[in-house]
Amino acid sequence: MTTTAVAPVSAEASAAPVKNYLKQTTTIRSWLLTLDHKRIGVMYLIISLLAFFIGGMLAEVIRTQLLTPSGLIFHGGGAAYRQYNQVFTLHGIIMVFMVLVPMTPAAIGNFTLPLLLGAKDVAFPRLNLFSFYLYVSGAVLAILSTVLGAVDTGWTFYAPYSIDSNSYVVLMVAGIFLLGFSSIFTGLNFIVTIHKLRPRGMTWFRMPLFLWATYATSIIQVAATPVIGVTLLLLIVERVMGIGIFNSALGGDPVLFQHFFWFYSHPAVYIMILPAMGIVSEIITTFSHKTIFGYRFIAMSSLAIALIGFVVWGHHLFVNGQSAELDAIFSFLTFLVAIPSAVKVFNWLATMYKGAIDLKTPMLYALSFIVLFTIGGFTGVVLGALSTDVVLHDTYFVVAHFHYVMFGGAIIAFLGGLHYWWPKMTGRMYSEPWGKFACGLLFIAFNLTFFPQLVVGAHGMPRRYATYLPEYQSYMVVSTIGAYLQLIAFLTMAGYLLHSLFRGAKAPENPWGGTTLEWTTSSPPPTENFLGTPEVDVPYDYSLVEYDPAIGSYIRKEPVPFAEQAH
Amino acid sequence: MSEAVSVFGQEEIARKHLAHHFDTPQQQFDSGKLGMWLFLATEFLLFSGLFCAYSVYRALNPEIFRYASQYLDAQSGLINTLVLLTSGFTMALAVRSAQTGRKAVLIVSLLLTMAGGFTFLAIHAYEYAEKYREGLLWGTLYNPKLQEAQPDQAAIAKPVKVNLNAGWKPLNLMAQSGYAVSHSNIAPAAIGPAGVAPAQRPQFGTSTAPMPQPANVQLFFGIYFLMTGLHSIHVIVGIILMTWLLIRTIKNDFGPAYYAPVDFVGLYWGVVDMVWMFLFPLLYLIR
Ligand code: HEM
Ligand SMILES: [Cu+2]
């Protein structure tokens, strides 16, 4: 990839130094009303990390409860068990709708998308800010609902219980409705940006793979989220006006709710995993210092996953009153999704093969991702098979499956991306040894937490109960110890990242030897991203960067002047 | 567009509206247009959930839809269809006159489109009031008082009335069996050797024969109010958007070089029209 017009401008810019986006203006107001995609991304990051912290603490409560068969915190039945239901419901809602869905696309995506693309901003900066405030107001409604009377329906809001529950379902659902529209507008913004703001030379097949992943994600956001919107709207009118669509007492059908819900929520899991896969693609090629293997296959498999993901929702209803024919069709389609997922895994492995692998922290996260996501994907196929799902549905096996893909996949890759782009975002380096330590601890702790859940699930332990049979206790204790170790890993991470923010070494332009455009601008970038319009050639050409021991970082080899290049 | 920019002074206007991160006004316009189309796609998907619910329940309970749709006033539905079509035309005229820079025509056609929107809402409000008076509401509020509202349908309504007096409530499904005995479904004897008299021949949709009231009629009215209600909200939003356009027009904001907002609201209004073109036959006409 070649960049011209950058170097000459920066030379004359030294006369009047260009301020980076963090220093451009400093008032709180300038942040709250900013139209800069980088600042909006950072604000998303801060809020979704806060939400992640709250959701994580709720998880620790759940795990502590499950240390003993009769429950350590909530015991005695009735009201206490209902509180337990509230805790896991909030955990699920926060993690899915406030962390996973916005975190990678909106936080990392907002920061990196225009940078990777070579654009000055997203297509609609005002809409971008509006999305952010929709997200914030959705979160505020959710908090309000929690304070007034936390919902106890599970994050899936299944009717008819969500119609009868005497908690503040309407407020919570209205909050998620807003979060949904925030997600729609972000997706819309990104699609238009990728279509219309690619600079000269950035053809579709020269886009970094993270952009392909983001593009596929955005399609899902735009095409699936309106359906959850109308579903939640129906749930609201159901409770407020008694309209009867999901209420069998009034002639409605509660199973229709499940269809609507999963029509969104299955594609939504790909909203979480696709950008994660995009991040992993970037990290693997950068730290293998080798061009990506099978670029087109990775790009197209993102689209394939997005499209197939729309027609598999029925695998959540195998035992919920769906006809056998439909079950069989959905089971077959579910198996199909595993193919493009596997295509990606093989391509990553092939990229690393004979590469010069540099095991820096982001790379460790990418490797963890491959292991954990593969386990998660395989357990998904097990659940997609009808005969096994009849047994495993609503057991801890399902819980373990989706934690392997959502946490082991989406969150781990997000953390990889956070570490990968951290120098670009903040202009500071973090402590590499501590980073590796936290990643290693997290990997072990994660498996300690969730592998035992796969086992007890296969033994038939049902999910969403405050108590369990004593024979499962040893597994549950191991799982809880894992959860506590995870907390330590995350606190470590918070520690060294905060330290880096204030004391970290200044980050060079290209600390990892990346070849995509964001590494050609300063760390942190100026508000306009690039001093000039970047010109783009094929991506992932590692012959163009070389390590410079003098500055301990990578530099770009003298580019061939644009005019001399063959076209 | 390119020829339009050459009009004196227009270039300046185009530049004034160009955001910093776009290279050309054309790029900005194209981005806006793509964004608008995507947004309209999500609007359509929002309605598609309701269309889906409609299809599912219609497939499961055709008798409810056949029975209940006869209580919708197809005539006012038709008038509303015509009103919306006309307003679609005036909106297109507005876009055209913004492109050609005819301010007066733009103002008049925006006003006419808004008038169309208001007429639509007024007729709809009248329909809602009618349904409210007749007790033809959704879910728990369904409480039909048919014979006062539709004297010509007394024959249909009578048995319902009997049940009402017996304390019929939507939830009380048992009471409906009481209705079944009070009315016979057996067709009257044939008149003459020619066979069944035309009036008694079972006909879908156009039958004037008394139809027994099936269970769960409230489901139809639930769907009716949801779909038309969500649509009416979109009409209201459209009117607000047009007011905004009107103010900007008066401030001389639009011309051949910059008319994107008019264009985009035009697209929006087109989708609002189109959704109604589906709603009208599905709810009012199909029996
Ligand atoms: C190879 C790909 C995958 C397959 C074949 C698959 C299959 C399945 C099946 C069949 C179920 C239903 C189990 C049941 O309830 O009985 C399920 C549940 C679930 N999966 Fe996956 N899955 C895959 C990937 C993913 C990914 C990537 C994510 C998220 C990032 C995910 C998240 C979930 C969630 C959240 C649930 C259950 C939610 C609940 O019931 O509360 N899955 N999966
Ligand atoms: Cu699924």
Structure description:
The complex is a heterodimer of chains A (567) and B (287). Residues 1-15 of chain A have low confidence and may be disordered. Chain A has helices spanning 6-13, 28-32, 37-65, 79-117, 125-149, 161-164, 169-196, 209-241, 254-288, 295-308, 324-352, 361-384, 386-392, 396-426, 432-458, 473-503; strands at 545-548, 553-556. Chain A contains 16 helices and 2 strands. In chain A, helix 5 (125-149) packs antiparallel against helix 7. Chain A has a two-stranded antiparallel ribbon with strand order 1-2. Chain A has 567 residues and is an all-alpha fold. In chain A, a hairpin with a 4-residue loop joins strand 1 and strand 2 (553-556). Helix content of chain A is 65%, strand content 1%. Chain A has a single domain, classed as Up-down Bundle (Cytochrome C Oxidase, Chain A), CATH 1.20.210.10. Chain B has 287 residues and is mostly helical. Chain B has a domain at 24-148 and 217-285: Four Helix Bundle (Hemerythrin (Met), subunit A), CATH 1.20.120. Helix content of chain B is 68%, strand content 0%. Chain B is built from 11 helices and no strands. Classes of the chains: A mainly alpha (567), B mainly alpha (287). Chains A and B meet through helix 7 and helix 8 of A and helix 3 and helix 10 of B. The complex binds protoporphyrin IX containing FE and copper (II) ion.
Detail the topology: elements first, then pairings.
The complex is a heterodimer of chains A (567) and B (287).
Chain A: H1 6-13, H2 28-32, H3 37-65, H4 79-117, H5 125-149, H6 161-164, H7 169-196, H8 209-241, H9 254-288, H10 295-308, H11 324-352, H12 361-384, H13 386-392, H14 396-426, H15 432-458, H16 473-503, E1 545-548, E2 553-556
Antiparallel strand pairs in A: 1-2
Helix pairs in contact in A: 3-4, 3-5, 3-16, 4-7, 4-8, 4-9, 4-14, 5-7, 7-8, 8-9, 8-10, 9-10, 9-11, 9-12, 9-14, 10-11, 11-12, 12-14, 12-15, 14-15, 15-16
Chain B: H1 2-5, H2 10-16, H3 25-60, H4 62-68, H5 74-100, H6 103-134, H7 146-149, H8 154-165, H9 175-181, H10 218-250, H11 260-285
Protoporphyrin IX containing FE is lined by residues 156, 269, 272-273, 315-316, 334, 337-338, 341, 377, 380-381, 383-384, 389, 393, 398, 401-402, 405-406, 409-410 of chain A.
